[in-house]
Specification:
Blueprint (H helix, E strand, L loop, with lengths): L3 E7 L15 E6 L2 E7 L3 H7 L9 E3 L5 H4 L2 H10 L6 E5 L3 H11 L1 H11 L4 H4 E5 L3 E6 L2 E7 L9 E7 L2 E5 L8 H5 L5 E7 L1 H11 L2 H11 L3 H11 L3 E8 L8 H8 L6 E4 L5 E4 L4 H9 L9
Helix pairs in contact: 8-9
Bound molecules: zinc ion (ZN) (2 copies).
Pfam families: Anti-Pycsar_Apyc1 (PF23023)
GO molecular function: 3'-tRNA processing endoribonuclease activity
Keywords: Hydrolase
C-alpha cells in the first residue's frame, strides 16, 4: 500500500455559501508523490494553501463535471498559482467543454496576463496549462499512477464522471455527483477509500424552503443525487475500506449534525465511515496506516484546520 493523504477542502454540495458555513466541492489528494486536486469549487485556492501546500506544487487537476460548485475557481486557482511562481506545467483533465471554460477564462483575464508577462517577465500562463478532455475509460497512465473514469447518472448533465485513482495497490474513488448508480459499486470494487456524495431527505425539504425555488430544486436534487443510505449501499457492494461522505446536501443546516448522517448511512453500511467536513484529513503512511487512521477516529491531529 502506498502512502497517501486526502484533504477535504470543501464538502458542501451546491455553489451557494452562507456565513460560517462550509465551502463547495474540492479535494486534495497526495498519492505516489503527485499532488492532485479533484474539483475546483469556490475556496479551492485557500483550501490548498491552508493544507500547507505551495501553489507551485500543483501538478494534476481533475474536474468531474462542469457544474459551478466543481469548476468555478479552476481559473482563479491556476492564475493564482502562476502569480505565486508556478514554474512547471499543470495538466487539467475534465469533460468536454472544459477547454472552452479555460479559453474563456484566459480571455477574461487577458489584460492582467499580458501585462504581467511584459511587466514582470512571467512565462505565458496560457502555455503552462494543458487541458485534456476525457470520456469514459482510461484517463491517465503515468508511471505507477493510473486514473480511470466512469460516466455516472447526474441529469441533466451527461458529462459527469466518477474517478478511480490507483497507485501501487492503493485505490481512491470519487463518486462525483450522481443519483444512486449501481455500476459505481463495480467501479469502486476493493478501493481503500470511496468518497461518495450524499443527501439527507429530511434536510432537503428545509433547504428547498430556505432557497426559495421550491419544487424545481427538490426535483433536481432527488433525480440527480444520492441519499446517504444509497451511498452506504454502494460502499457495501463495492467492499471498500472506508466510506467518506462529501458533497453534503444540506451541509449547513443547524438542525442536522454528524449523528444524523451516521444514522442514515448505518442502515446500509457497517464499515469504517467518515462524515466529511472542510479541512478534514485522511492520512495513510505505509505500515503506519492503522495507527494514523486511529488518530483520525479520535479526532486528533488530522483535523488541523477544521
Ligand atoms: Zn455538485
Ligand atoms: Zn453537479
Amino acid at each position: 500500500m502506498s502512502k497517501y493523504r486526502i484533504v477535504l477542502l470543501g464538502t458542501k454540495g451546491g455553489p451557494a455559501i452562507r456565513p460560517g458555513g462550509p465551502w463547495p466541492t474540492s479535494t486534495l489528494v497526495e498519492l505516489g508523490g503527485r499532488t492532485i486536486v479533484v474539483d475546483c469549487g469556490l475556496g479551492v485556492t485557500r483550501g490548498v494553501t491552508d493544507a500547507g501546500l505551495s501553489l507551485k506544487a500543483l501538478d494534476l487537476i481533475f474536474i468531474t463535471h462542469l457544474h459551478s460548485d466543481h469548476v468555478l475557481e479552476l481559473g482563479a486557482l491556476l492564475h493564482t498559482a502562476w502569480t505565486a511562481g508556478l514554474a512547471t506545467p499543470v495538466k487539467v483533465f475534465g469533460p468536454a467543454g472544459l477547454n472552452r471554460y479555460w479559453q474563456g477564462f484566459v480571455q477574461a483575464l487577458e489584460f492582467d496576463i499580458e501585462i504581467r508577462i511584459i511587466d514582470e517577465g512571467r512565462p505565458d500562463l496560457r502555455e503552462m496549462v494543458e487541458v485534456v478532455e476525457f470520456g469514459e475509460g482510461e484517463v491517465l497512465r503515468d508511471g505507477d499512477l493510473s486514473v480511470t473514469a466512469l460516466r455516472v447518472d447526474h441529469p441533466p448533465v451527461t458529462e459527469c464522471f466518477a474517478l478511480r485513482f490507483e497507485h501501487q495497490g492503493t485505490a481512491i474513488v470519487f463518486s462525483a455527483d450522481t443519483a444512486f448508480f449501481p455500476p459505481l459499486a463495480d467501479f469502486a470494487r476493493g478501493a481503500d477509500i470511496l468518497l461518495h456524495e450524499a443527501m439527507l431527505e429530511e434536510g432537503v425539504e428545509r433547504l428547498v424552503a430556505r432557497t426559495g425555488n421550491g419544487a424545481r430544486l427538490r426535483e433536481h436534487l432527488m433525480a440527480s443525487h444520492s441519499l446517504a443510505g444509497e451511498a452506504g449501499t454502494i460502499a457495501a457492494r463495492a467492499g471498500v475500506g472506508r466510506l467518506v461522505l462529501n458533497h453534503l446536501i444540506p451541509a449547513d443546516d443547524p438542525e442536522i449534525g454528524e449523528a444524523d448522517w451516521v444514522e442514515a448511512v448505518r442502515k446500509t453500511w457497517n464499515g469504517t465511515l467518515t462524515i466529511g467536513r472542510d479541512g478534514l484529513v485522511v492520512v495513510v503512511e505505509g505500515d503506519d496506516a492503522r495507527n494514523r487512521e486511529d488518530l483520525h477516529e479520535t479526532g486528533d491531529a488530522e483535523e488541523r484546520f477544521a
